[in-house]
Amino acid sequence: MDFSSIKLLILDVDGVLTDGRISARAGVGDSATLSGSDGKRFHVRDGLAIKVWRECGGRVAILSGRTSLDVTRRAAELGIDFVRMGEAEKIPAFEAICREASCAEHEVAYIGDDLPDVGPMKRCGLGIAVGDAAGCVKRVAGYVTRRGGGGGAVNEAIEWILRKQGRGFGERTSKV
């Protein structure tokens, strides 16, 4: 594997950037509904690692089967380059992101956790499964994180890729 060719990181959301648990939406008139939050929780270390990845010249995309205002907000905070939500069919969305980013599929690392992620993971240059991913995802992954989704798995994966690229990780964080 030529790690130096990885330029774009595509992330699933539920089960990768979050722990995969989905709460029932708040009832009508409830403050959570009025605020537009669906209660997603993100790990701060994943956000820092995404910023470091971008500082190192990498680009980031989110590809999710669900839509979420919380994801929209978090993606904006982190300066994520491409956000595709509500995509039940991930392969066409994966192909569209690659076109938008002017990236060949072998230049993409994809992090997933469940069956809809298998297709893009088989097409990309480097498929990564979070530690608590479904078995079918782990079997097609080139790397499986020790950490689970929502628990810093994205941080671990980015640190691993940057080290494989000879760029380190720790020395970058002082600039972010």
In words, what does this structure look like?
There is one protein chain. By secondary structure, this protein is of the alpha/beta class. It has a single domain, classed as 3-Layer(aba) Sandwich (Rossmann fold). The protein has helices at about 30-35, 45-55, 70-80, 90-100, 120-125, 135-140, 155-165, and strands at about 10, 60-65, 80-85, 110, 125-130, 145. Strands 3-2-1-4-5-6 form a 6-stranded parallel beta sheet, sandwiched between helices. Strand 4, helix 5 and strand 5 form a beta-alpha-beta unit. Helix 2 runs parallel beside helix 7 (about 155-165). The protein is globular, with a radius of gyration of 15 Å. Residues about 25-35 have low confidence and may be disordered.
Keywords summarizing the entry:
176 residues; 13% strand; globular
Q: Could you outline the blueprint of secondary structure elements for this entry?
A:
Elements: E1 8-11, H1 31-35, H2 44-55, E2 59-63, H3 69-78, E3 82-84, H4 90-100, E4 108-112, H5 118-123, E5 126-129, H6 135-140, E6 143-144, H7 153-164
Parallel strand pairs: 1-2, 1-4, 2-3, 4-5, 5-6
Helix pairs in contact: 2-7
Span between N and C termini?
29 Å
The class by helix and strand makeup works out as: alpha/beta
Strand content: 5-15%
- CATH architectural type: 3-Layer(aba) Sandwich
Secondary-structure element string: EHHEHEHEHEHEH
Widest sheet, order of strands? 3-2-1-4-5-6
- Estimate the helix proportion, in percent: 25-40%
Radius of gyration: 15 Å
Mean pLDDT metric: 90
The domain count comes to 1
CATH topology: Rossmann fold
CATH superfamily: HAD superfamily/HAD-like
The number of E-state strands comes to: 6
Counted by DSSP, the helix tally is 7
Q: How would you describe the shape?
A: globular
- Uncertain regions spanning at least 5 consecutive residues: 26-34
Largest sheet entry: 6 strands, parallel
- Give the CATH level 1 class: Alpha Beta
